[in-house]
Predict the structure.
Amino acid sequence: MRSYRTTRRAVGLLAAAALGTGLLSACASDDDDGSKSDSGDGGSGKTTITMGLFGTFGFEEAGLYDEYEKLNPDITIKQDVIERNENYYPALLNHLTSNSGLADVQAIEVANIAEVVDTQADRFMDLGKVDGASEDAFLDWKWQQATADDGKTIGLGTDVGPMAVCYRKDHFEAAGLPTDREEVAELWAGDWEKFLDAGRDFKENGPEGVAWVDSADAVYDGAIASSEGKYYDEAGEVIYKDSPDVEAAWGIASTAAEEKLTGNLEQFTKQWDQAMSNGDFATISCPAWMLGYIQEKGGTKAEGKWDVAQSPRPGNWGGSFLGVPESGPNKDEAAKLVAWLTAPEQQAKLFAERGNFPSAPPAYDMEAVRTATNPYFGDAPIGELFSASAEEIPVQTIGPKDQVIDDNIGNGLQLIEQGKQDPDGAWDEAVKAVDNALDQ
């Protein structure tokens, strides 16, 4: 599978499972088509603000729409949800190009934000100038991702995906590895090579039939997410072939595949879901939203067996934005709504109810975030853990075709896991596929 919310790497943002008592994963389930989907006002005379979304952002489920309507009695909010970003995003581009059929508010996934900023910025309002929206309230790199060279900010961040590693305590114990989350984090602190070393120990001493990690692709995702560089330079040139960060992440992931430390699974497939349910792997790269997915697939039989530790290095995987098209009939009111929905207070409420990790650092000191724990994961202090990770995430240059490059690198890693190519041959195949996709 290529995409649910954006691709297999972003699909977890759709997972709709409880994160402890009331906490759910970021952007929840792709089964929800939105109960507030019509855009009429029924003759009430109220201003109806339409929200064009993909997946489930959780605003309605967390009660934020109802709260805003009570604060603003002349406003009605209706959302129109397309389940998968692979269907939503092409339609959004078509509407932007024709300048018709747009909702008052349109969501943009992080994998697409660079392309929208580069090619469609003139179609959106500058939300940096809207009352209630402050650059200082957001992570700097998150704000910059949606800001054009001329300083126009076309979207406000809804969430981010700070990284951790989720691990099975029962499997670690059986392999003679520590199970305390702080001691576990020390196994690989600061270095993904140490993560492989722990995996080698696990392979030698762990339970038969249990892989160290689910997939080489997930190892790569974690490693590249924690790197300074990625696929483009600041001038917008594609540099992945010569990037030392990509080379290092590929080296870590391809080694994991070649040494058979992985479960040879493709994330967000039925086979992967079943393996998670059965406990067939011991670790997984774990952004905040992944916790809910693990809980959903692990069910009651895995409760208390999983825990969460800091990743080898801080990184980010996931996150979205809300933008306001210039052609919208209610753009001023829509901009006010977007500023309110993405304010730290609302982001903290959304985390408490749905698990979407805030892109606004002021929310990290709020009790709903700061004291959050997850009973399913042994009362892991997820608010504290993910806040610390979020504040240390490296700033990466996001390019317009990051997802295309990412997908084809993942396909190359699968060739190694399947025994079809060695790492050098798999890299060559990945490069050919990327170059074809980019017409190079």
